[in-house]
Amino acid sequence: MKGYTFYAERPIGRQYKTDLGLVVATLLLWGLGIVTLYTCSPSTAARLLQGDKYYYVVRQLISSAIGFALLLFFALLPMDKIRSLLPYFVLGALVLCLLTFIPKIGVERNGARRWIRIAGLGTLQPSELAKFAVILFLANLFDRQKESGEYDDDANSFIKPLGGLLLFVTVVFAQKDLSTGIIIFLVGAILFFVSGARISWFFPLFFLGTIAGGLLTFKEEYRVRRLLAFFRPDEFASTTGFQLTQSKKAIVSGGLWGQGMGTGLVRTPYIPEVYADYIFAGWTEAMGLVGVLAYFVLIGFFAWRAYRVAFTTPDRFSALGTFGCATLILMQSLLNCAVVCGAVPTTGIPLPFFSFGGSSIIVTLAMCGFMLNASRCESSLPGNTYYDNNDDTESYETVVEL
Fold this sequence. Notes:
By secondary structure, the protein is mostly helical. The protein contains 13 helices and 8 strands. It is globular and about 60 Å long.
């Protein structure tokens, strides 16, 4: 039959498919994290929780269900809707962070006020939400500034995003969560760089930040003990450095091939918080050097797919948000592994997808949903184009044979 030509009044867009590699990497990391928690936590849970040896696994699965619901929410909600809801999300994260200082709502542990109590659900760590909120806040602001022409490489465009970043960092520092505050600041600084800010603007800021970090470190006795245990591990092997000492023994006992999952790990049960920040030591004892290499290959694959989305998506907000989320997850993963191996002093940074913690797994999966959404952002349809000499706009044509 005769061929008909349809002309679009405006550029036609196409919808990309969700990045399958990123989906697979996310599911594999989450699945391995659950299996590792199932293997490493029962003995500790039975000792601490009067025989409920699968407490941590069950709680993590419940939190994961909430996390996957948010993953679908951020993956399926149109990006413009996410941006319209962003002010409420950022303000809500800030309010939740401030609630930690209110008695009977905030929960204090070991002198730190990092949690709030939610009836029926346990506790929530708002600083985890703050990580995601800061990334989206900066991505949105940088994109708006670029669109309006406000971002013209001068100091004025630097002040607004910096003020928002420092507000969250200050509140997190006030919660006595130094490591999380530093992570938020570093990811924010990286977003400044990739958005086009001058590096020279950060020199005085980093100088002042280093001084502030040093003062905050030496202000708390437990942080000083951690530093001493890092530089003189033998002297603190039975006190502050006990956890790190046992972690190193677990890593060594893993050998090349590991003890195997579910075979009864020897060293792991002696690590006090193996279900949380030191769970990578349990993975290493179970899977050995081969398992360590496999983990780094997987997290590397995850980062590659995420950064690929960030560099190929045509939407600047989605690109910056994805870059920030990928950087945060990768940075936390590498830092946690370095702590467990004794390469850097002990911090309170969890291992994404692996460490027990409802707030951490929920926010991590939500960020993955945002990155999957970014992988489906619209782009101009490549193909035949023509230019109307009487119109400055570009038009696209599609030929359909009937």
